[in-house]
Amino acid sequence: MTYCVGLLLNEGMVLLSDTRTNAGLDNIATYRKMFVFENSGERVITVLTAGSLSVTQTTVARLREAIDDLDATPATSILLAPTMLKVAEIIGATLASVRQDIEGKMNASKITAAASMIVAGQRVGGAMRMFLIYPEGNFIEATEDTPFLQIGEHKYGKPILDRVVRPDTSLADAQKAVLLSMDSTLRSNLSVGMPLDLAVIERDACRVTMRRRIEAGDPDFAAMSEAWSAALRDGFSRIRI
Amino acid sequence: MTYCVGLLLNEGMVLLSDTRTNAGLDNIATYRKMFVFENSGERVITVLTAGSLSVTQTTVARLREAIDDLDATPATSILLAPTMLKVAEIIGATLASVRQDIEGKMNASKITAAASMIVAGQRVGGAMRMFLIYPEGNFIEATEDTPFLQIGEHKYGKPILDRVVRPDTSLADAQKAVLLSMDSTLRSNLSVGMPLDLAVIERDACRVTMRRRIEAGDPDFAAMSEAWSAALRDGFSRIRI
């Protein structure tokens, strides 16, 4: 399984993904689920993936092929597309098409091969936008009312986001919020695992302004996790019913 | 939807259920999901239900019929069954049978009618036991390693239980833990709703020792919820990354 989350805030966007994948129950591996497409200063597009690894890898590979194609056009390359909406449409169409191809091959075994994605980006002169793309290729967009999107095992880590994330949350608090949301998920669901990929895209930078891989045993993450546990235990013990 | 949770602790058992049901998206109503079968001082059995309302209501009705039957035997009545394991087997068999009956009627419309239950109880001279009964009638049991069971929308409220519930948790702390677990679920999922039913069964009492309905707007619950929010915000603001 997977947990990925993206926040769309006044100051910028914050993205976090885990890296655990499994084929069946026992074939567990580590794969990056965060992909960056960047023309620094002109546009940045970050894609987070959840679901069938063969679908997400093939989708990302086709997006890269379309970018590198000598005949690339604004209708085929996400680095040439005129708007973020058009970027989301290209990615949605590619995802749905790959899924159909792969499910066609798997029909005999009645296995489905669905995947979903979070697409976050900005091009120079445009607004920051963040989309959740469904397996069928349609999508929804983060807004002021709902400034975060999640894919994969999203329920364990939703309560903390519901409580603390607002459009005016600072980028520092936003990083804390997504890391604590992931921490709750890691503790409650063994199918989500370290290392983590964290990225920050500041408003109007049109590039990834901070990117960090957090390995298992990272002392800062462990200290934050322990401090949060202590704060919860402490808060719990002070409540009277 | 539903959220029900049961804790099996050294000092006793604590059970909590919501009351929201819906048929489709717009037909929302309030139904009790906690049922008590008691022969005070001799045995107590509490059943929490999740899933298709027609299945859970019919299952509970059949269990009551079997108890009231003049020809009731230890093999048919949960108030006569010799052990809690046998009680779980009777309830599991009744649940699976009702489900088959109802799904038989619904075959034409390809709708499933699954339900699951938490069964918690003790008879005099026996141990406290708690089971999660699956729609197929099989079940698992709470143990020292996993001293809580959940049905319905269980993921939002699991992180708090994972952090604070141990077999030696006091009954007072246990009530706090299930209420905070429910509070997180209520905030993150609109399909779970007040009022709540809370019950405590102290070890070896063989009866429900405390039972309380918590209505929407209950001042104690609201104060606890607000105190928890404040503790989380406070803990969050003190963490450095």
Automatic annotation (TrEMBL), chains A, B:
It comes from Phaeovulum veldkampii DSM 11550. Gene3D superfamilies: Glutamine Phosphoribosylpyrophosphate, subunit 1, domain 1. It comes from the Bacteria. This is Peptidase. It holds the Pfam family Proteasome. SUPFAM superfamilies: N-terminal nucleophile aminohydrolases (Ntn hydrolases). GO terms for cellular component: proteasome core complex. CDD domains: proteasome_beta_bacterial. One of its GO terms (biological process) is proteolysis involved in protein catabolic process.
